[in-house]
Write a structure and sequence with these properties.
The chain is α+β, with helices and mostly antiparallel strands. The protein folds into 2 domains: about 210 residues, Jelly Rolls, CATH 2.60.120.10; about 120 residues, Arc Repressor Mutant, subunit A, CATH 1.10.10.60. The protein is built from 12 helices and 13 strands. The protein has an 8-stranded antiparallel β-sheet. Strands 3-6-11-8-9 form a 5-stranded antiparallel β-sheet. α3 runs antiparallel to α4, α6 packs across α8 and α9 packs antiparallel against α10.
């Protein structure tokens, strides 16, 4: 049975509170990786899937008067590059079902808190199922700033320990209480909820004993440096030539051996560099098929992205995305613009 097409909003509701403020609850499911990346308003996100199989992503969001809480899950190995909105800080807790991941070169797992300042690009490599609950606060006028002052303006980091896991349980509970059947919901006051979450985040900021080794130590790892340089070579080549460079060109530009590049990709992504480049090319083709529907053929797009044999391209495409390129083309004209769970 084929997966449902497109993005499906499971619920979208707004409720009045006793203090005349309001909160909104929305749930969405997407079977398209680019729609999932575009779902969070104000966030800049780019995903690359490098594991075969149909993609499924789910977002459940609770928008409060001066903060946002959401849970997001994805089911495939992904390379994510993302930036929260400028002048915001996000606290993301990996939940118990999550597989291990790498944040800014730092290995992370269930119970860890990722501290993510807005306005800067961050990197996350998911090694399978990724299930995370996130609280975001503006850097001015929020409950967190009222408690922490300038200390609320944080650098990227990873926090471990009992308090970190406790934040995850708190955020899960709030989401669960807000998204149950309307008649079964316990009364919820937005101010009290925001204050509770802000206090727990503030405790993490001030509890230096729970802060992990400096993330900068991991950013200096050779594998992370080489991978970042490889991404830069790819980005420049895409900008100048509108195509992914060959492995030979990348190795030459980096001045490293092919074995070193293979070790780098195996260490961080658990795939070969050739596999990663093939996935990049398939993603480029998919985006062009969706964007150029009706004005360019699948054959022409495949050739542009370095696939000279249409049959082999179709097989590789279906293995990665769970559908043929012809189906992507057919759906492209009928699909609306990706909807956002909220707008910043």
């Amino acid at each position: 049975m084929e997966a449902p097409e497109g993005t499906h909003f499971l619920a979208s509701e707004s409720f009045g509170l006793a203090d005349s403020s309001g909160y909104a609850v929305q749930n969405a499911r997407s079977n398209d990786i680019d729609d999932q990346a575009a779902m969070l308003g104000g966030w800049q996100q780019r995903y690359i899937q490098y594991e075969n199989g149909s993609f499924t992503g789910v977002v459940e969001a609770l928008t409060l008067p001066n903060s946002t809480l959401f849970r997001k899950s994805t089911n495939r190995r992904l390379h994510k590059r993302f930036a929260p909105p400028p002048n915001e800080t996000a606290f993301a807790v990996l939940l118990s079902d999550s597989d291990p991941a790498i944040f800014q070169g730092r290995p992370v797992g269930p119970g860890d808190v990722l501290v993510i300042p807005g306005g800067h690009e961050h990197e996350l490599i998911c090694h399978g199922l990724f299930d995370v609950v996130v609280a975001t606060f503006p850097n001015s006028g929020s409950e967190l700033v009222n408690i922490c002052g300038d200390a609320a303006i944080v650098r990227p980091g990873v926090i471990k320990g009992v308090q970190a896991a406790g934040l995850g349980r708190c955020l899960q509970r709030v989401l669960m209480e807000s998204s149950g059947p309307l008649g079964a919901r316990a009364p919820m006051d937005a101010a009290d909820v925001q204050a509770e979450i802000a206090r727990k985040c503030a405790d993490l900021i001030y509890n230096k004993d729970q802060v992990s080794d400096s993330i900068e130590r991991y950013e200096r790892m050779r594998a992370v440096q080489i991978f970042a340089a490889m991404r830069e070579v790819i980005a420049v080549h895409l900008r100048d030539h509108d195509q992914v460079p060959s492995l030979v060109l990348i190795v030459r530009a980096l001045g490293v051996s092919l074995r070193t590049l293979e070790y780098t990709c195996k260490t961080l992504l658990n795939v070969s560099p050739q596999r990663y480049l093939t996935c990049l090319r398939l993603h480029g083709a998919r985006r062009d098929i969706r964007a150029l529907a009706g004005s360019s053929s699948v054959r022409d797009i495949a050739f542009k992205w370095g696939f000279s044999h249409l049959g082999r391209f179709s097989i590789a495409y279906r293995q990665l995305f769970g559908e043929l390129p012809s189906r992507t083309l057919r759906l492209a004209g009928a699909s609306p613009e990706p909807r956002r769970v909220w707008s910043a």
